[in-house]
Amino acid sequence: MRRPILAGNWKMNKTVSEAVALVSAAKADLLAISGVEKVFCPSFMAIPDVARLVSGTELGVGAQDMYWEASGAFTGEVSPLMVQEYCQYVIIGHSERREFFHETDETVNRKLHAALAHGLTPIVCVGETIALRQAGKTESWVAGQVEAALQGLTAEQVASMVIAYEPIWAIGTGLAATAEEAERVCRDVVRATVARLYGEPTAEALRIQYGGSVKPDNTAELMAQPNIDGGLVGGASLKAADFVAIVRLTAEAKGLI
Asked: Which residues are annotated as catalytic?
């Protein structure tokens, strides 16, 4: 069975001291839950302190973004070498990066290559807007994003990464796809696209998260789906008790505890 992975994307929230307090509050409870990968994705400013706090444990740290060049005159950017020093994971192509900072399928692909070249596990985000969904274009849009993101990668690289299906209309809105609909897109669009491009073994090895208003009260139903291998959690990851509950409910849904 694919090992479930829960990643808390804190976005532009929590000062360094608040980040330390949150991780300190959740750490012991998270370590008591086995069989699930647990990842904190704080702001760049808080990454070093969070990394020191979880050092030597199975808890992981991820960046919310990075640039594709290792160094150079790119004011304000953070390179994969800098991320690699503290993190094991990096979120790439989140819809907010695409919308507000004009990221494209091409830049997502370049960042993905850079992350893998520097030993980082990428969490690549795909998902449709409400307009695309209402127009019946969910399948073609999400499949196109997956295919564009994976350009030039080997089957081994694809099998090692994570894809997060996040319908944009569900992010931060309180709305969430039904468990059945999330499963359908993860299975029939994301995993099926990878199978078409790289074959069934690669598609079966790939982990697919669901993201978009994941909360303790909908976690069990979502994570009971066979093709949802965890969650990319936004607002609920900002509360220690809620994130712990989501991790525990995931472990229970997958039969790990």
From this structure: 94, 166
